[in-house]
Each structure stands twice: as structure tokens, then as C-alpha cells.
């Protein structure tokens, strides 16, 4: 289990699962695997007759978002985002890192009718970005990792807001209100986890969590938001224990399984010129748009936040910017939501996310290695980033 907690291992497993899905989809096994992913499972009485792919993206992925929400709450309360002075620099970089790739995407898709896909290239995969930094960043000061983590957490927060606002249609207000009550009950129960009743209360919390997910799903809001809400309201100490227990399962099963199912697409046998505008928009926006946006945001944030909290050098900002285009998990989810009505464009979007992320991995690995080597030569005794 300790190996799966490693950022290096998590990144490797995630990449391996995505590559495996893409390879198998383009073999004789592809049609059979696609049929399995499209198989409906679950009781229709509760509107839970979902496909296997939907159970993975809507159900299992809620675990990942729960862990991300607990991390977000920790950073906002006692971590690197606990005051506006600390949060200002990474917040500006994160916002610019969302705006720039969105504008690049919109420029490529102008007039195509696919403008709604602009959120796809705006996300940064926390686990993967930190994994690449851990692999190639020996010698970098710890503040680089801290800044990357803060930026990625804020990036996830923006992604959560985007999913909640732009990918929710005709919400069922009754189910939504019931979900809010259920979330409040979950938070209250988490503060009662002590003494003899600890076991029964834990079981009750699991049932309430499942009920919350069902209500959010029924409300029309994307059900992964249930994981976010539960992570934000759970009492701090129990939440840290639960995420510690769930982390290996998230890294070793949930995220790889989602990457595998999302990457399970056949490579279209068409000339490059016939690939859709969203493909090119995502492919360019992830490595280029994120790099430009985070770099400019890092520079601007450094100017505005000078003397306020922790700032980052230009070299450190370039390291973070080079890793920002690794989209993977959240970008793949955004892609599924944005192009749900067009399987062909959705599949091309998956390929673009994978290719754009791979470009960022290569560029980020090179950048991190070069800057880390420079730091090791200039500051041989400075505290280094850990893996």
C-alpha cells in the first residue's frame, strides 16, 4: 500500500492504465470492451440503470473528488491557502491558467459549434503533475512542490465550480434540497465519531454518503459533486484518517480504472485535416495555453504578492507552468461531459487530452530536470522536494 501512495507510482499507474485502454481499444478486443462499457447495470426503479462507464465516471470517481475536497479544505484552513496572503500568488496563476487555455480552445473552435468544450483543457491533474515533479525534481526547493500543490488544488476548485454550473441542466430542486440535508447530516455524524458508538456511526455515515450520492445524481447535478460536498463538511481528523485509508484505492484502482475506460477509444482512420476543431483546440490549449497562462499568472502574482505570503521565483514558475498542461483525470471527465452528445468528437477529445498531456509530460520532465540540475549546482545544501 505504501508504494501506491507514492506520487511516482501513482503517476506511472495512471499513465499505464490510459495507454493500455488506448492500445486495447485498437485491437480485436476493442469492440467487446466497448460493449462491456456500454452494458447497463443497476436498478431502474431508482434511476440507477447506468452503463459500466457511467458507474466508473459518476460513481467511483466521486471517491477521488472526496479526497481532493479534503485536501482542499486542509489547504484552505491550515495549509498553503489558509490566508489571502498565502493564496494570492497561486490563485492568480491558477485563474490565468484556466483563462488562457480556454481562450486558445475558443480560438480554434470559433464557428464550429463546439464552444461548449472550453473547460476541457483548463484542468491540471494533481497526482500526475506531482508525480512528474517527484521523478525529475530532485534538488528543487520544497516551495516549488508547495506552489504546484496549491495551484492544482485551486485548479480543482475551479473545475468543481465549472462542473456544478455548466454541466447541470434542469436540476430537481427537491432532490437537491434533500441532498443538502443529507450532507449536513453526514458532517454532524462525523463530529460524533468517538466512544462506543464509533462503529455504528461509521456504518451510518457510509449509508448517508451513498444516499447523498443518489440524491445528487437524481437532482441532475453531476454526482461527483457529492464527493466534494462530503469531503468539505467532514470533521478534519476523521477526514484525514479516511482519506489516508482511501488514497491507495484511489491511486491504484479508481483513477486507473477511469483512465482506462476514458481512453478506450478507437483512433479515427481519417487524415489529420479531417480531425475536428475541438481535437486541435484541446491538443494545443493543454500544453501551450496552460503554460502561457500559468507563466503570466505566476509573473503577475509574484509582482502583486511580493512580501505577502510565499512567492515563487521565475524558474520555479516555469517549472509549475510546464506541468500545468497535464490534464488527464479531470480533463477526461470534462471531455465526457462537454461532448456527451457526439461520440465521435468525444473520442477525438480523449485522444487530444492524452496527446496534449503527454506533450506536457515530456516538456515538463525536461524543464523540471534542467531547473533542478541548476538548483543542485547553485544550492547543494538547500532542502529538496520529496517524492
List the helices and strands and how they pair.
Elements: H1 2-5, H2 7-25, H3 30-37, E1 40-41, E2 50-51, H4 52-77, H5 84-109, H6 126-136, H7 142-166, H8 173-190, H9 198-219, H10 224-233, H11 236-262, H12 277-304, H13 314-323, H14 328-338, H15 343-378
Helix pairs in contact: 2-6, 2-11, 4-7, 4-10, 4-11, 5-7, 5-12, 6-7, 6-15, 7-13, 8-9, 8-10, 9-10, 11-14, 12-13, 12-15, 13-15, 14-15
Catalytic activity: Na(+)(in) + 2 H(+)(out) = Na(+)(out) + 2 H(+)(in)
Protein name: Na(+)/H(+) antiporter NhaA
Transmembrane segments: 55-76, 88-108, 120-140, 147-167, 173-190, 197-215, 221-237, 249-267, 279-300, 312-334, 349-372
Describe the structure.
The chain has 387 residues and is mostly helical. The chain has one domain (7-167, 222-378): Na+/H+ antiporter like domain (Na+/H+ antiporter like fold), CATH 1.20.1530. Helices cover 73% and strands 1% of the residues. The chain contains 15 helices and 2 strands. It has a two-stranded antiparallel ribbon. Helix 4 packs across helix 7, helix 5 packs antiparallel against helix 12 and helix 9 (198-219) crosses helix 10 (224-233). It starts with a helix and ends in a 9-residue tail after the last helix. It is found in: Cell inner membrane; Cell membrane. GO terms for molecular function: sodium:proton antiporter activity. Na(+)/H(+) antiporter that extrudes sodium in exchange for external protons. Pfam families: Na_H_antiport_1 (PF06965). InterPro entries: Na/H_antiporter_dom_sf (IPR023171), NhaA (IPR004670).
Amino acid at each position: 500500500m505504501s508504494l501506491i501512495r507514492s506520487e511516482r507510482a501513482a503517476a506511472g499507474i495512471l499513465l499505464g492504465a490510459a495507454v493500455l485502454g488506448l492500445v486495447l481499444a485498437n485491437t480485436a478486443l476493442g469492440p467487446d470492451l466497448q460493449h462491456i462499457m456500454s452494458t447497463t447495470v443497476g436498478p431502474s426503479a431508482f434511476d440507477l440503470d447506468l452503463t459500466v462507464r457511467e458507474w466508473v465516471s459518476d460513481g467511483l470517481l466521486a471517491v477521488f473528488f472526496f479526497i481532493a475536497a479534503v485536501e482542499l479544505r486542509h489547504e484552505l484552513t491550515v495549509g498553503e491557502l489558509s490566508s489571502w496572503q498565502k493564496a494570492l500568488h497561486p490563485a492568480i496563476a491558477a485563474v490565468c491558467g484556466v483563462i488562457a487555455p480556454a481562450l486558445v480552445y475558443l480560438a480554434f473552435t470559433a464557428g464550429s459549434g463546439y464552444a461548449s468544450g472550453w473547460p476541457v483543457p483548463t484542468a491540471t491533474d494533481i497526482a500526475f503533475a506531482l508525480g512528474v515533479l517527484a521523478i525529475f525534481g530532485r534538488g528543487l526547493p520544497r516551495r516549488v512542490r508547495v506552489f504546484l500543490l496549491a495551484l492544482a488544488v485551486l485548479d480543482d476548485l475551479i473545475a468543481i465550480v465549472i462542473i456544478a454550473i455548466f454541466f447541470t441542466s434542469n436540476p430537481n430542486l427537491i432532490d437537491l434540497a434533500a441532498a443538502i440535508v443529507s450532507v449536513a447530516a453526514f458532517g454532524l455524524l462525523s463530529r460524533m465519531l468517538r466512544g462506543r458508538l464509533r462503529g455504528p456511526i461509521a456504518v451510518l455515515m457510509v449509508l448517508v454518503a451513498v444516499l447523498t450520492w443518489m440524491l445528487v445524481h437524481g437532482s441532475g447535478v453531476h454526482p461527483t459533486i457529492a464527493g466534494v460536498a462530503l469531503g468539505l463538511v467532514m470533521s478534519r481528523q476523521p477526514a484525514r484518517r479516511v482519506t489516508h485509508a482511501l488514497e491507495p484505492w484511489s491511486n491504484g484502482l479508481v483513477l486507473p480504472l477511469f483512465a482506462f475506460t476514458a481512453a478506450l477509444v478507437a483512433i479515427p482512420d481519417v487524415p489529420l485535416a479531417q480531425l475536428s476543431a475541438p481535437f486541435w483546440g484541446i491538443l494545443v490549449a493543454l500544453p501551450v495555453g496552460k503554460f502561457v497562462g500559468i507563466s503570466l499568472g505566476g509573473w503577475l502574482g509574484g509582482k502583486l504578492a511580493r512580501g505577502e505570503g510565499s512567492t515563487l521565483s521565475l524558474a520555479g514558475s516555469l517549472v509549475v507552468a510546464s506541468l500545468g498542461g497535464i490534464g488527464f483525470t479531470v480533463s477526461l471527465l470534462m471531455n465526457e461531459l462537454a461532448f456527451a452528445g457526439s461520440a465521435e468528437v468525444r473520442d477525438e477529445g480523449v485522444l487530444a487530452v492524452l496527446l496534449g498531456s503527454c506533450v506536457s509530460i515530456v516538456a515538463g520532465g525536461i524543464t523540471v530536470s534542467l531547473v533542478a540540475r541548476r538548483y543542485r549546482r547553485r544550492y547543494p545544501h538547500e532542502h529538496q522536494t520529496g517524492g
